[in-house]
TrEMBL record:
This is Ribbon-helix-helix protein CopG domain-containing protein. PANTHER family: ANTITOXIN PARD (PTHR36582:SF2). Belongs to the ParD antitoxin family. Transmembrane segments: none annotated. It comes from Rhizomicrobium electricum. Gene3D superfamilies: Antitoxin ParD1-like (6.10.10.120). Residues 12-50 form the Ribbon-helix-helix protein CopG domain. Keywords: Toxin-antitoxin system. It comes from the Bacteria.
Length: 100
């Protein structure tokens, strides 16, 4: 298990305000022995938020790339007309075949 060590000059003290329910959750995590301090709880929450945010940004970039590809296809004429009624009919047929 690796540990993170911070040089004192790299640590900045912040004061945060939390809703009572969140503050109680942090206190429970510390009181339950899962964490040594409230700061540890907040640090882990921020690390997880950063990872989640990075994944969201990757997914957004992929979506933007897909959208651009679609727009490029439209601009280049690489599209074909579609029949809405036919699409609905094929979808209904698939649903019927799954329910058998």
């Amino acid at each position: 298990m690796s540990a993170l060590f911070y040089v004192m000059s790299e640590i900045e003290r912040l004061t945060i305000t939390l809703p009572a329910e969140m503050a109680a959750t942090v206190k429970e995590a510390v009181d339950g022995g899962d964490y040594a301090s409230s700061s540890e709880v907040i640090r882990e929450a921020l690390r997880e938020w950063k990872m989640k945010r990075a994944i969201q940004m990757q997914e957004l970039a992929a979506l933007r790339a897909d959208l651009q590809k679609g727009l490029d296809d439209i601009a280049a004429g690489r599209t074909k007309p579609f029949d809405t009624e036919d699409i609905i009919k094929r979808g209904q047929q698939r649903l019927r075949s799954r329910s058998k």
